[in-house]
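Exercise 7. Given the encoded structure of a 205-residue chain, write a plausible sequence.
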């Protein structure tokens, strides 16, 4: 089991040499600005102000690395899709993300989308990036508390269809506000950490 109390900020990366390279799993969180990415990370860790909530959208073009129990990293990618961002900033975002994806360090990807809406063109690009890594990929459909019960199934189907998700990619309804879906996300993270630990344990003789 991961001790979620042992979560600490490691660094903000702006270039490849800043990316941790100790071989521990890197669990990546991506999402459009304001989708609730920081809130989701905080809810998973049961913290209030760990990842920063409601910061200036689009202003943080760096990748934040957190160590969880010295067993895995949580990687907070800069949000995308904020309208008021300059072309230069958008380009910087693209270059940094491309460099990180090319570094082949991602071991599990989470993309956070808004359960109320059809995913955007940017969401599609992001999902394709994750799918092209060939690593396990999961979509978190956040703000579940904002829809009616009857909307759940059609909205999840719309997300699957729009992002062209293969069957093996789960879509997990989630509410960073209420905590619903937290156990499902946590179970995937625990399983990922456990599988890695099992692979890296030296057999006793
Ligand atoms: P980020 O830009 O993706 O990191 O988004 P934030 O975590 O800062 O959240 C953006 C806004 O959405 C904040 O006002 C949050 O309180 C709100 N929010 C995030 N998740 C939820 C959710 O599940 N339900 C509701 N109702 N509001 C949410």
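Solution.
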């Amino acid at each position: 089991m991961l001790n979620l109390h042992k979560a600490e900020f490691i660094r903000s990366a702006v270039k490849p040499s800043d990316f941790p390279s100790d071989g521990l799993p890197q669990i990546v969180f991506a999402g459009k600005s304001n989708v609730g990415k920081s809130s989701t990370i905080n809810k998973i860790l049961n913290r209030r102000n760990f990842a920063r909530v409601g910061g200036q959208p689009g202003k943080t073009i760096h990748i934040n690395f957190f160590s969880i129990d010295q067993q895995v990293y949580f990687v907070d990618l800069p949000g995308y899709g904020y309208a008021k961002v300059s072309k230069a900033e958008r380009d910087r975002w693209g270059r940094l993300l491309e460099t990180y994806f090319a570094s082949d360090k991602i071991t599990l990807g989470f993309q956070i989308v808004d359960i109320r809406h059809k995913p955007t063109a940017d969401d599609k690009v992001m999902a394709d990036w994750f799918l092209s890594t060939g690593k396990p990929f999961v979509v978190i459909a956040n703000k579940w508390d904002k829809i009616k019960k009857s909307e759940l199934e059609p909205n999840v189907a719309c997300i699957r269809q729009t992002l062209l998700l293969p069957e093996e990619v789960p879509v997990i309804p989630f509410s960073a506000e209420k905590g619903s879906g937290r156990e499902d996300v946590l179970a995937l993270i625990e399983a990922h950490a456990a599988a890695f630990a099992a692979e890296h344990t030296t057999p006793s003789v």
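Remark. The chain has five helices and seven strands. Students should compare their own answers with the one above.
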